[in-house]
């Protein structure tokens, strides 16, 4: 097991290319289960989660081949309906095979999924959606079993206590593409990753209307075709590098993500006085040094197009770098603040009141040993290390590798003093 040592205080300078969207590509890989024809997926990031998802698909019977470092060929000529616990437990996105297997085989047995410890994330809306399509659902020994002899389209409402469900929308959408009749998903997730998945499914021959809106209408087909598709850039990785450029008083040009997917972040940054230049045509974001003049902020995470929960932890670091009092309220996963205790170890003045982080910014940070608890919390610790005085040693970086390809190398390419070493103290 490795750790990363960051010696802070170096302004980042240069251009960085973001990878494909993690949260889109695994749903798209699951879509390959819907057809027996070959499927090509491009711009796939090299991540721990992707590698684990590939192994999961292989155990289901999918032939998977890496044609190039970021290009995969998948073909599900014949598949089994049973997913193994050892692979499903490792990540939340593994639950996406549930809807695809149900659509293709009319049955599926998938253990409850794992992933980052960021609060309670039940799949009750996923199961409700499949029930509305005519599937019998049961939970036995931690394994979800669904089956139907003659499923049919229906109207499914996927709104929940904290908004709509992204992976729930994926599951119902995948199942509906091969379900006879019309399925209407109301309160569907509108995230760019869902839009991208819908475009891929259309390339496969699926009939989908309302893409990008909270109401999706799907007319089920008897068969679907293969695809050759390029995944959109990862908006969360792009946002992370934008914030890294701001907090280090550097110049960073972020390429490969669509700026309109980051409209909520860009609105916040514009409001507080940040100098971030947007080029929609070339899909670039240019961050100029402006930290000294930035104003405190109040932000609430919400489903897209609101401020993304996956950038909340990184925004906390910006808040502790800006003089004054900033507030961040988490409405998607109210318990997603495990990074605050680690930021306190670096000297940050932060407190938590309910689901709101109170950030008293402007005091310098000092390097220390910190530990990642989840993917985005780990990214926040990398950012904090970039501005902390002295050396910050980040342990359990495997969490970060679930969602960022070569983050330490990309930061080094921007001039950061980052060293990866073996973690002799790992347990």
In short, what is this structure?
The protein is of the alpha+beta class.
Q: Could you please describe the fold and organization of this structure?
A:
By secondary structure, the chain is an alpha+beta fold. 30% of the residues lie in helices and 25% in strands. It has two domains: 2-19 and 233-422, Enolpyruvate transferase domain (UDP-n-acetylglucosamine1-carboxyvinyl-transferase, Chain), CATH 3.65.10; 22-230, Enolpyruvate transferase domain (UDP-n-acetylglucosamine1-carboxyvinyl-transferase, Chain). The chain is built from 14 helices and 23 strands. The protein has a four-stranded mixed β-sheet, covered by helices on one side. A four-stranded mixed β-sheet has the order 2-14-16-15, with helices on one face. A four-stranded mixed β-sheet has the order 4-5-3-13, with helices on one face. Helix 5 (124-132) runs parallel beside helix 6. 52% of the residues are buried. Residues 115-120 have low confidence and may be disordered.
What form results from the Cα inertia axes? globular
Total number of helical segments? 14
* Approximate strand percentage: 25-35%
The average pLDDT value, as a whole number, equals: 94
Structural class: alpha+beta
């Amino acid at each position: 097991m490795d750790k990363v040592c960051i010696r802070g205080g170096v302004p980042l300078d240069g251009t960085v290319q973001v990878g494909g969207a993690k949260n889109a590509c695994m749903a798209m890989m699951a879509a390959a289960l819907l057809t027996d024809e070959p499927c090509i997926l491009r711009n796939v990031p090299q991540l721990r989660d992707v590698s684990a998802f590939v192994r999961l698909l292989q155990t289901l019977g999918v032939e998977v081949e890496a044609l190039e470092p970021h290009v995969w060929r998948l073909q599900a000529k014949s598949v089994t309906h049973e997913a193994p616990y050892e692979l499903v437990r490792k990540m939340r996105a593994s639950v996406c095979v549930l809807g695809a297997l149900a659509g293709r085989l009319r049955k599926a047995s998938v253990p409850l999924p794992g992933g980052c410890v960021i609060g309670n994330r039940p799949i009750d809306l996923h199961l409700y959606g499949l029930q509305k399509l005519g599937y019998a659902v049961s939970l036995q020994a931690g394994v979800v079993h669904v089956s139907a002899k003659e499923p049919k389209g229906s109207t499914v409402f996927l709104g929940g206590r904290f908004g709509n469900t992204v992976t729930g929308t994926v599951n119902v959408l995948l199942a509906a593409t091969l379900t006879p009749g019309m399925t209407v998903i109301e309160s569907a997730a509108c995230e760019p990753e869902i839009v991208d998945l819908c475009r891929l499914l259309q390339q496969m021959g699926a009939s989908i209307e309302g893409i990008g809106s909270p109401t999706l209408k799907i007319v089920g087909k008897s068969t679907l075709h293969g695809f050759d598709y390029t995944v959109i850039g990862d908006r969360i990785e792009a946002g992370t590098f934008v914030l890294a450029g701001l907090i280090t008083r550097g110049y960073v040009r972020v390429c490969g993500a669509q700026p309109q997917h980051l409209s909520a972040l860009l609105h916040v940054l514009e409001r507080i006085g940040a100098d971030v230049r947007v080029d929609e045509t070339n899909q670039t974001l240019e961050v100029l040094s402006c930290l000294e003049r930035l104003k405190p902020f109040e932000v609430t995470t919400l489903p897209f197009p609101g401020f993304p929960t996956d950038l909340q932890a990184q925004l906390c670091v910006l808040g502790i770098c800006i003089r004054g009092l900033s507030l961040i309220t988490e409405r998607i996963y109210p318990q997603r603040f495990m990074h605050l205790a680690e930021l306190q170890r670096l000297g940050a003045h932060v407190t938590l009141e309910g689901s709101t982080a109170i950030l008293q910014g402007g005091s310098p940070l000092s390097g220390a040993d910190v530990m990642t608890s989840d993917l985005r919390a780990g990214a926040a610790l990398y950012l904090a290390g970039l501005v902390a005085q002295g050396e910050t040693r980040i342990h359990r970086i495997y969490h970060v590798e679930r969602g960022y390809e070569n983050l330490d190398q990309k930061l080094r390419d921007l001039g950061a003093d980052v060293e990866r070493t073996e973690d002799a103290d790992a347990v």
